[in-house]
Amino acid sequence: MSEPILELRGVNKSFGPVHVLHDIDFTVRAGEVTALVGDNGAGKSTLVKSIAGIHPIDSGEVVFDGKPVTINGPRDAAALGIEVVYQDLALCDNLDIVQNMFLGRERGKAGMLDETDMEQAARKTLTSLSVRTVKSVRTQVSSLSGGQRQTVAIAKAVLWNSKVVLLDEPTAALGVAQTRQVLDLVRRLAEQGLGVVLISHNMNDVFEVADRIACLYLGRMAAEVPTKDVTHGQVVELITAGRSGELGIARPESATI
After folding, report:
1. pLDDT tens-digit profile of 33-52?
2. All domains of the chain, ordered by start, with CATH?
3. Which end of the chain, N or C, is surrounded by fewer C-beta atoms within 10 Å?
4. Per-residue pLDDT averaged across 60-70, rounded?
């Protein structure tokens, strides 16, 4: 088992009187895919946005590469090597692949864009991820399929020497063949030593690519276990009831008073 690259310890987050995250412990390891699952309203998006620096945590500790860190905003997260691929992908249809991958981080000197350098870097990144579905890095994003767009968004995230990549529902609304391409890419990210967090409602995808599964229930971490140690049914019970047999949140009668 690899060392944790990212740890959340006792993290809490509230929005006014609504306590969304309750004493969350969460671990991401380099070279592994950790699936973050939970019902709608369980707190998945809030947890991801807290890691990304969009929502500052109220209390608790964030440890990155073994050192406590404070993430005050998305720039702090990016500086550490944390990148997020949101469900809407945040790509510009009117720009090509290179322009999208370097949007806001363009390379150049003397006030001029270095198009050749950016194009080479984009092509190198796609090649390193064994992406073969994109014929040209100068293709307009508007002409790409859903799977190709997801691929570009993931490549954009790993272009910046990322150490942790969070993927929000990367296979949502994709066909069978495109889902296969994206899942293969998710595994390749882990094989390259990145810590990958996969947020998904698709249990088949989760059990296929995840090394560990973290189950959120009403803002609490019900369980974080190796995928091989749980069944599909147990995960569904953890998501819907917070408990499955001896696994999950302690029942009130067994809790320490």
Report:
1. 999 999 999 999 999 999 99
2. 4-96+160-254 (3.40.50.300)
3. C
4. 96
Name, in order, each residue with C-beta under 8 angstroms of 246's C-beta and a sequence gap of 6 or more. Answer: none
- 190 and 31 in contact (C-beta within 8 Å)? yes
Report CA dihedral (214, 218, 220, 224) to the nearest 10 degrees: -20
pTM exceeds 0.85, yes or no: yes
| Residue 174 contacts residue 150 (beta carbons within 8 Å) | yes
> Which residue in the block uniquely carries the two structure tokens 């702090």?
76
Residues composing the chain? 257
List the beta bridge partners of residue 67: 64
Residue 109 neighbours by CB distance under 10 Å: 8
Rounded Cα distance between 17 and 3, Å, is 36
**Rg of the chain in Å (alpha carbons):** 19
Angle between helix 115-128 and helix 146-158 axes, rounded to 10 deg: 110
| Tokens 């009831």, residue located | 241
Give the per-residue pLDDT at 232.
Answer: 95
Backbone angles phi, psi at 146, to 5 degrees: -60, -40
- Tens digits of per-residue pLDDT, 117-167? 999 999 999 998 888 888 899 999 999 988 899 899 999 998 888 999 999
Read out DSSP for 105-141?
A: S--EETTEE-HHHHHHHHHHHHHHTT--S-S-TTSBG
Is 43 within 8 Å of 199 (Cβ atoms)?
A: no
